[in-house]
Amino acid sequence: MPQITVDYSGRLAGDFDRPGFARALHEAVVEIAAAKPPACKTQFRRTEDTVVGPDAEGHAVVHVTLGLLAGRTDETKVRLTEAVLELLRQYAKPGDGLALHASAEVRDLDPSYRKFETE
């Protein structure tokens, strides 16, 4: 915990500092949601096709989902999503007239969530 997934348009790949974003996001999650730094995990999933409204050209999408153990207040979740959007403004800089559509959500992990680690 937390489990972070970032879906992003392939057109944005060269204009999105993913490692920098992940490091900054992990710091924000530690500060805002009291996560432990080694527990922060982010996966990036590049998507090749993006359509916004009737247009398949000129748009890029980034959506960040943060899964946290239950117990965070709605206020904490809102602060975290706002922090994510601010970080996306800093780390995702679309070029070539590309319009960026960025969004984020925080959800509670299901009570069945379990994990293991190997060393």
Structure in words:
InterPro entries: 5-COMe_2-OHmuconate_Isoase (IPR004220), Tautomerase/MIF_sf (IPR014347). Keywords: Isomerase. Pfam families: CHMI. GO terms for molecular function: isomerase activity. This is Isomerase. By secondary structure, this protein is α/β, with parallel strands linked by helices. It has a single domain (3-108), classed as Macrophage Migration Inhibitory Factor (2-Layer Sandwich), CATH 3.30.429. The chain has helices at residues 18-33, 74-91; strands spanning 3-9, 41-47, 59-68, 99-108. A 4-stranded mixed beta sheet has the order 2-1-3-4, covered by helices on one side. α2 (74-91) links the parallel β3 and β4 (99-108). α1 packs antiparallel against α2 (74-91). It is elongated, with a radius of gyration of 15 Å. The two termini are 17 Å apart. The mean pLDDT is 94.
Q: Fill in the CATH topology.
A: Macrophage Migration Inhibitory Factor
Count structural domains: 1
CATH class: Alpha Beta
Structural class: alpha/beta
CATH architectural label: 2-Layer Sandwich
List the main descriptive attributes of the protein structure presented here.
about 120 residues, alpha/beta, Macrophage Migration Inhibitory Factor, 4-stranded mixed sheet, 4 strands, about 30% helix, Tautomerase/MIF_sf, isomerase activity
